[in-house]
Specification:
- The complex is a heterodimer.
- Chain A is an alpha/beta fold.
- Chain A has a single domain, classed as Rossmann fold (3-Layer(aba) Sandwich).
- Chain A is built from 5 helices and 5 strands.
- In chain A, strand 4, helix 4 and strand 5 form a beta-alpha-beta unit.
- The relative contact order of chain A is 0.19.
- The model of chain A has no long low-confidence stretch (mean pLDDT 94).
- The model of chain B has no long low-confidence stretch (mean pLDDT 95).
- Chain B has a single domain, classed as Alpha-Beta Barrel (TIM Barrel).
- The longest helix of chain B has 25 residues.
- In chain B, helix 3 runs parallel beside helix 5 and helix 12 packs parallel to helix 14.
- By secondary structure, chain B is an alpha/beta fold.
- At the A-B interface, helix 1 and helix 3 of A face helix 4 and helix 18 of B.
Chain lengths: 133, 559
């Protein structure tokens, strides 16, 4: 029996607009994944530690405030430090085109702007999550 | 009357049999579902039977007459147009000050301040959680010095321009700063007007920018009610907001019901604090969303006025008609804007703005076409303001008061919104009130459910969003957007360090300690905060002082 993909959905930064985070969390759960929602105002340290504790395959970050560059860089650094390089990081929110190459460059390939169909996100995660043994 | 309805009933049945059915046989209706964006079923046709039981004099009445369904002003927009108040703020106080001057020059008639997240959350720029957030979603205001820069050259004693400030948890701190700057401009507190949002309940419910626990937060609000009724009598002390509830995914009805119920909660807390209803209720105003379902929104505004008038008169025994009259600001729905084919957003916004105007809004913000991508550029913000000016001056809808009054459909929908709201109120009353309902997660859960249902309807393409799940176009040209870099953070950090070197440390410490002592007891916190502000204490320091005494609120995350 194949194990469920484990996803940590997090809202980093000071912003409290959690509609997107909650909708995607529920959609991934309904698609058969194991979803852990951290709640609001998580620091990169808290998010990475949640991923470690929960043995997550994927971290989904919801960021609308414009703080994504700082937050994503820090999350990726911490994942490397903890030896969690194989955890897939995806982000959703208001992300200017200008920032996408840099985000891709630090290892974030799944970037989902407003209007993205849920199914596309589900498919991306299913195809790219690390293989569970 | 009964005979008239029976005749109408018979007429409709005859029409269905003889006219409609043969027509449907030849060309059937579209698949539907025929529902509003909130999922409310809509009938094919409304006739006089749908408004049976609504008495014109009792339930609707003429404009300016209780219960104000048709508006609070007898002459509608023939007298004064709505205030065209564009919400703006980004980067440093100087950059935002320049945007305000541009908006006034373009014919804007009110200012509306957007603060950045550190300010909204009561954190200074040097706090670890402020990393990457300074100046991004709004203007960064750290101390009185920044407020002086924000309003430099904008006369706060001029009654022609009023200022609204979207600030909630730190509302008393920011308001105290505004009052001190107004004083510096030579303004008389007894004469100035403006608005602070100061609506913490919708933060717990929807936007989640809370700091202190609910009861202490409510105390700060009643302190402002009491302070303003004596010292700043023309200030709008609260703008009870449905906007954020709707943006979080609620239905139109939930927005209406929860927002007005929040309003009742504030009034109850004011009364419990010993205030006379007619002393503070006239300064309570509202803030609604205008979403894309045209008639449902119009019905929402019309029902809002009646519900508030009835509740103030009968539930609270208000005697002053000003307490009965619901005044509101509207903003078009940010959440309806699409990142795809962004020029379509101009059209969405125009329709939403028209609904707000036909619903009798007192003040309006129109969103800019690029706001699903970033904060608006100057050009995009100008088109948004021009949209309002075109409605006001070209469309002709301002010539007549409440042009949709008497429409079978609109009056029936208005009645449905009213009845639905009363049901929600009943549920919340039985829980013990809105604070208790929030503590149980009730409105939060209702909204999360509605938001998920809507998303599912979009995924199934039962709800079409042009350019997103239908009429998709791959070759759309990218827009030029406003890109806010990190320079504001650097500047504000430098200024904070300078401030801490220059100011009188002893006085800062003393005023913050006095604030803590007052907060522990029952003193009104506003005069104490004014002392802190005059000593150049920062927003973060004032909030931290209260965090030490009251603690912080944390919600249980639910999905």
């Amino acid at each position: 029996m194949s194990q469920k993909i484990r996803v940590v959905i997090a809202k980093p930064g000071l912003d409290g607009h959690d509609r997107g985070a909650k909708v995607i969390a529920r959609a991934l759960r309904d698609a058969g994944m194991e979803v852990i929602y951290t709640g609001l105002r998580q620091t990169p340290e808290q998010i990475v530690s949640a991923a470690l504790q929960e043995d997550a395959d994927v971290i989904g970050l919801s960021i609308l405030s414009g703080a994504h560059m700082h937050i994503c860089r820090r999350v990726m650094e911490l994942l490397t430090e903890k030896g969690l390089d194989d955890v897939q990081v995806v982000i959703g929110g208001i992300i200017p085109d200008l920032d996408i190459p840099t985000l891709n460059g630090i290892g974030i390939k799944g970037i989902f702007i407003p209007g993205t169909p849920m199914q596309r996100i589900i498919d991306f995660i299913s195809a790219n999550a690390r293989a569970r043994v | 009357m009964k005979g008239v309805i029976e005749r109408a009933d018979r007429r409709k049945a005859k029409w269905e049999r003889e006219v409609l059915e043969p027509a449907l046989e030849k060309s059937p209706e579209r698949k539907g579902p025929f529902t509003t964006i909130s999922g409310r079923p809509i009938e094919r046709l409304y006739t006089s039977e749908d408004i049976a039981g609504i008495g014109y004099e009792r339930d609707i009445a003429n404009p300016g007459e209780y219960p104000y369904v048709r508006g609070i002003h007898p002459s509608g927009y023939r007298g004064k147009l709505w205030t065209m108040r564009q919400f703006a703020g980004f980067g440093s106080p100087e950059e935002t000050n320049q945007r305000y001057k541009d908006l006034i020059a373009a014919g804007g008639t009110g200012l509306s301040v957007a603060f950045d997240l550190p300010t909204l959350m009561g954190r200074d720029p040097d706090h670890p959680l402020s990393l990457g957030e300074v100046g991004k979603c709004g203007v960064s205001i750290v101390s009185l010095k920044d407020m002086e820069r924000l309003f430099d050259g904008i006369p706060l004693d001029d009654p022609a321009i009023t200022t609204s400030m979207t600030i909630n948890s730190p509302a008393p701190m920011i308001f105290a700063m505004y009052l001190v700057v107004a004083e510096q401009h030579g303004a008389d507190w007894k004469k100035i007007s403006g608005t602070i949002q100061n609506d913490i309940l919708k933060e717990f419910i929807a936007q989640k920018e809370y700091i202190f626990p609910p009861r202490q937060s409510m105390r700060l609000i009643t302190d402002i009610f009491a302070f303003c009724s004596q010292e700043v009598p023309k200030w709008n002390t609260i703008s009870v907001s449905g906007y954020h509830i709707r943006e979080a995914g609620s239905t139109s009805l939930q927005e209406l019901a929860f927002t007005l119920r929040d309003g009742l909660e504030y009034v109850q807390y004011g009364v419990d604090a010993g205030l006379d209803v007619d002393d503070f209720v006239p300064r309570i105003s509202f803030f609604f969303n205008s979403h894309s379902d045209f008639f449902e929104e119009i019905a929402k505004y019309r029902a809002a006025r009646k519900l508030w008038a009835d509740a103030m008169r009968h539930r609270f025994g208000a005697k002053n008609p000003r307490s009965w009259q619901l005044r509101f600001h509207t903003q078009t729905a940010g959440v309806s804007l699409t990142a795809q084919q962004p020029y379509n957003n101009v059209v969405r916004t125009a329709l939403q703005a028209l609904a707000a105007v036909l619903g009798g809004t007192n003040s309006l913000h129109t969103n800019s076409l690029d706001e699903a991508l970033a904060l608006p550029t100057r050009e995009a913000a100008t088109i948004a303001l021009r949209t309002q000016q075109i409605i006001a001056h070209e469309s002709g809808v301002t010539n007549v008061v409440d042009p949709l009054g008497g429409s079978y459909f609109v009056e029936a929908l208005t009645r449905q919104m009213e009845e639905g709201t009363l049901k929600y109120w009943d549920t919340i009353d039985r829980m013990g009130g809105m604070v208790e309902a929030i503590e149980r997660g009730y409105p939060q859960q209702e909204i999360a459910e509605a938001s998920y249902q809507f998303q599912q309807a979009v995924e199934r393409r039962e709800k079409v969003i042009v350019g997103v799940n239908d009429f998709v176009q791959m070759d759309a040209k990218p827009l030029e957007i406003l890109y806010i870099d990190e320079s504001t953070a650097g500047l504000q950090l430098e200024r904070l360090a300078d401030l801490k070197r220059m100011r009188d440390h002893h006085r800062v410490r003393q005023t913050l300690e006095a604030l803590q002592a007052g907060a522990t007891g029952t003193a009104n916190t506003m005069p104490l905060l004014l002392d802190c502000v005059r000593a150049y204490a920062t927003v973060g320091e004032m909030c931290d002082a209260l965090r030490e005494v009251w603690g912080e609120y944390e919600e249980v995350p639910l999905i």
